[in-house]
């Protein structure tokens, strides 16, 4: 058993199997709140707790997934390229939307942290919550925050955004694909973009571009504020 747990593929395979089953669960139930990533996290936590597997073993065994995080983010350039004409036509809207999104995210985090009396360390850890993980961790390290808190905030933000934003657009009867794509990418980074790609390639392309631009604005604003 110990040899299996210490192997290089056990936890990677476990993560993939749990995620695929979570995706199937959502397709069967058609419940948007059964987000595959959220379900996978809860199931994996339960497995580690029941089997008393140290997190250090899990982290080491699933390092292949972490290694693929940055290349997977780069793949988002494909729908961006396919939708390059629409991106050029809506460049002004994308720049304004992503800037205001990054600014409102940083200001709201700062304000809420002060209201709830959170210290500077926690505040700086939460500032990059709305950008994709590689950028968020880099911003956190430069500003002196805690990467573990940043990653948790990024995941939670992505999950909530990918669930709430499409529902909010449907409720408000907003059918503008440009607005939906920009909103998902700006507020929910890669998780929002994966949802946008499910909705349509145009939304996915706009969302993918919004991730990169929002990341740039977030880096600049977090250093200035």
TrEMBL record:
This protein's UniProt keywords: Membrane, Transmembrane, Transmembrane helix
Domain of life: Bacteria
Bilayer-spanning residue ranges: 6-25, 37-55, 61-81, 93-117, 148-170, 204-224
Main location, first listed in the record: membrane
Organism lineage: Bacteria, Bacillati, Bacillota, Erysipelotrichia, Erysipelotrichales
Cellular compartments per GO CC: membrane
Annotated membrane topology: Multi-pass membrane protein
The protein, known as: LrgB family protein
Subcellular location per the Swiss-Prot or TrEMBL entry: Membrane
